[in-house]
């Protein structure tokens, strides 16, 4: 079960309450920083931008591939451990706006995690250390450490038999 805080709304759908949720200028700043980071080919600069301007927790030698899209409104709720790879065009969300409510939740990605291209990670999930998420997956629930998951809906493909083993490539 995802761990999110839920905020009901009364009148129009929850997206109409966006600037009651997060300040306009914060969104503008985050947009500019994220767009710069999405296109930069320099991994240390990308991590520095995320840490310095978005308050994301990013571990040493973690690599965000080209076009990764962290949450624009609540990037500070994203934590990625050391030596992880976040694949091309992956989206990491810490919020979701629905018709009658919006939800906000932390996203925690462990150490040595591989997330394939075009994955979508929803708010309130934890991806354990050593996990592998297949390309194109929608991560809507927690992923156990060392497991290999994929698809939409997300399902377990394989568990590591020994935590020192790695998955074949």
TrEMBL record:
It comes from the Bacteria. Pfam families: Hexapep (PF00132). Gene3D superfamilies: Hexapeptide repeat proteins. One of its GO terms (molecular function) is transferase activity. Keywords: Repeat, Transferase. PROSITE patterns: HEXAPEP_TRANSFERASES. PANTHER family: ACETYLTRANSFERASE, ACETYLTRANSFERASE YVOF-RELATED. This is Acetyltransferase (Isoleucine patch superfamily).
